[in-house]
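For reproducibility, we list the full input for the iron/sulfur cluster complex.
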Amino acid sequence: MDLLELEKLKRYSFEIGPIRPPSEGGSHSLLIRATRNCPWNLCKFCYGTPYNRDMFQLRSVNEIKRDIDAAKIIRELLEIITKKLGGIDRAVGVINPHFLQNYQSVRNVFNWLCFSSRSVFLQDADSLIMPINNLLQVLRYLKQIFPNIQRITSYARAKTLTQKIKTLDKLKELQKAGLSRLHVGLETGDDELLKYINKGVTSEEHILAGRKAKEAGFELSEYWMPSLGGKALSKQHALNTARVLNAINPDFIRSRRFLPHMGTPLFDEWMKGAFQLLTPHEVLKEIRMMIVNLDITGKVCFDHANNPAFRLDSSYTWLFKQDYNGYQFPEEKTKVLNILKKGLEIDESLYISRRFI
Ligand code: SF4
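The corresponding predicted structure, in tokenized form, follows.
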């Protein structure tokens, strides 16, 4: 079969940033890089390391549009190949061997195509920092080129959402233009801990930002980090995180247990003994304290590999389901508390250590 398109595909690519939330991987979102890296780079547990600590850069609207155009051509070529081969299932066997190792953008578009091309994620760490009119142009262009898109999502810093220039009306305009879900790194609702980790935002600002995002009509995912306060701040971390999340009432709360990451200031403090990690059972007790005090109507998710996992025979298993829609609250709150109870009955030595992960 003549598949000249396979060779043509190799000529096209677009820029893809290093990370996206796990749920966007699960949704096989098309990745469009709206900005490069993180405009803050100073959180003690992260330090911009996922972006190699590279300097933040805005991208021009034209540059982003060129990437969207490239994604369109790649999709069209993939559609031709798929049609010639008689369907996606048969195309997988032909396309994957050609593009498995390199050609990240072709792989991204092919996965996107295989899963109905419904969702787009705007990279990198804080697309809301773009001038609103530029972001509006990008959103409108995306919808124009790919009219079947149902969801466009992005990371957003709470601090950026609180900026006066990001008025409620402007945020509503972004939502109407297609930006449907925001992923915000809350990490903790405790002011002492927010200061310690250098998040650059207070708990009041977190609440303001979260409520503003919801009022503008966005679906809101808030990420918190069990164990981030170590032994010293565990209790206040749990209680104040529940307090702030209750005040925001986000659609999704996503748990991502803190583990020290090399190249960050918090890793160095941990190595020197100035920061003490919780034991596996202490982590579960902290999650339990947060959950007991949580009073929201939304989904509580544990969709990250860092969440508690334990050895079972020769394999290992996560304590909570890894589902991107997690547990519906308040209906499944008791279920989550029961899982935690069972988790506390499992010997601590069976939990997967930081080194293993
Ligand atoms: S804002 Fe996000 S990406 Fe930037 S340093 Fe903090 S945690 Fe890392």
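The longest helix spans residues 61-85. The pocket of iron/sulfur cluster is lined by residues 38, 40-43, 46-48, 125, 157, 185 (CB under 6 Å). Both points were considered when choosing residues for closer inspection.
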